[in-house]
Amino acid sequence: MSTAIPEQQPTAGILLREEPSGDPAADLDRGIELLREVAQGKRGPLLRIYRPAPTLAFGQRDTRAPGYEAAAQAGRDAGFAPLIRKAGGRAMAYHPGSWVIDHIQPEKDAMLTHQHRFEHFANLFVEVFTRLGVPSAVGELPGEYCPGEYSVHGIATGHGRFGRGRKVKLVGTAQRVVQGAWLFSSAVILEDTDPIAAVTESVYEAMGLELDPNTIGSVQDLVAESITHEHFIETLLEVWGEHGYTFDERG
Q1: What's CA 155's distance to the chain center, in Å?
Q2: I need a labelling partner for 83 at 20 to 30 A (CA). Which of 27, 32, 70, 129 fits?
Q3: Keyword Secreted on this protein (predicted)?
Q4: Which H or E run includes 178?
Q5: Alpha helices in the chain (DSSP H)
Q6: What phi, psi does 182 have (nearest 5°)?
Q7: Cα–Cα distance between 170 and 191 in angstroms, integer?
Q8: CA distance 145 to 105
Q9: Is the pTM of this model over 0.70?
Q10: How far apart are CA 33 and CA 109, in angstroms?
């Protein structure tokens, strides 16, 4: 399957490797601020990456669920800051064992390729994981958190923490489009599954949403050899570059 976005031009931009500010809300809002700056022509294309503080990111739909307040409190009790993201999707938890990857680009008619970007970037993540030795595929798992047609899941090799063949969601994505630019945000769970599993189960139970706990996991659960954070980012930048997205780190 081709992963090329129709008429997508090669992109040269800036890599922003950031540290969490200590304020999860500010870290989440910064992606939207950068999107506005790109749309206004104040910045060019950029890739912002960081390891987040414990965050429980709710979608707009979640706030209308009868159990939302109880779910938000469950997040606080577990040490995860409950926040409402401006992009779509349902609740997802992430923490310093994860990476948030905000890919932001100017595009005149950004809405026209909105749906295709989900497929495009899902396939790029499959390439990343495959190169790291993690079997993976695109497709929604029954009962997964923050479900989506283009979810990326990994398949346990039987040599890691999970038994062979178990499928777990590895990437949660959301997208925000404004006039003249788009933000594609991905959260990748690399390690330390247990806190995420515990808070996710509590939150989904509070809101009465379907959840199969067996779909919760991390990259590190699926393979025998350790995959370092640096190796993951190096591989991601390598794959992005092969598909025309080159980002230079500055500052």
Answers
A1: 18
A2: 129
A3: no
A4: strand 167-178
A5: 24-39, 68-77, 114-131, 193-207, 229-242
A6: -140, 155
A7: 10
A8: 27
A9: yes
A10: 20
